[in-house]
Amino acid sequence: MRPTALLLAAFVSTLYPAIAVADAAWQKSLLEWRERVDVNLRADNGWLTLAGRFVLKPGANTFGTAEDNSIVFPKGLGPARIGTLQVEPGKVTLRVAKGVMVEKDGMPFEERVMGTDASKRDWVSIGPVQMHVIAREDRFVLRLADNESAVRKGFGGRVWYEPNADYRVQATYVPYPPGRKITIINVIDEASDEPSPGYVEFTLGGQRHTLDAVGEGDGLFFVLRDATAGDTTYRPGRFLYVSPKPKAGERFTLDLNRIYNPPCAFSEFTTCPLPPKQNILKTRVEAGEKYPPRRAAS
Question: Which residues of 106-143 are buried (b: 16+ CB within 10 A; e: fewer)?
């Protein structure tokens, strides 16, 4: 915070102690949240550990580090042939190659139908290497994680704008009629029609802005971009999550200081959504997470 800002804060705290206390509580909550998202990013099997993303074909998919596999893992991440992933309608079965140990929660197995839903994905391990299968539309994708990855070891922390109360704006949530969807394009140019529960409207810099929410659940999720993109923030866009979902038509505080970077800002093995055109703001939002992140000291 600049010296003038400190003097102003001291002046305000003298005249309006209740405002000063509320501001301190807000900043404390914001910084604690930032610490949590930083810790989550660094976690085992997190975005920083991803080492591969492979789309599975129908039928047998052999995998391992040897070149003759259907799916070739990076050198050093497992035996030459680890096993086979058998893809059938609605399920993926992992069959382990003879003499190889693959474990789930510390228990070895030879064959397993993999959990692929978001709520029950199976992480299985081959030594320090972890993998799981995720369902994406009408296909399955294998994700590989290396908890000893150079990306994880070289990560020095997220970088944020200083907390700025000017970016805590008053907004109104306006629900859409049930069943509304909007088209979302991801970074590999795949399109999907996602449910949109509604939008928020607010004023920033003297201008009215709106953001469409996407997805379902108890909160509101936004994919957005502003005029800082490619300058001080991640060029493709950033995310914002509001919880709980505001009541229809009621004013609430939309804290743009909680805008954060998508997984693609940290890993090449993710497929993040891009903001729809209506969520591209022409104004600069100098709040939330910056880009690039810090590198660890070598």
Answer: eeeeeebebbbeeeeebbbbbeebbbbbbbeeeebbbb
Please name the residues in contact with 41: beta carbons below 8 A apart, sequence gap of 6 or more.
47, 48, 155, 158, 266
Q: In what order do the strands lie in the sheet with 111-113?
A: 71-72, 59-64, 83-88, 91-96, 111-113
Residue 126 pairs in a beta bridge with: 129
Mean pLDDT by groups of 10 residues along the chain of 298 residues: 47 52 89 96 95 97 98 96 96 96 96 87 90 90 95 96 97 97 94 96 96 95 98 98 95 98 96 96 97 84
How many degrees, rounded to 5, is the angle at CA 270 between CA 290 and CA 55? 170
- DSSP 8-class letter at 260: B
* CA 167 to each of CA 71, 111, 185, 219, 253: distance values in angstroms, whole numbers, following the listed order: 46, 52, 28, 20, 10
Question: Whole-prediction pTM value?
Answer: 0.88
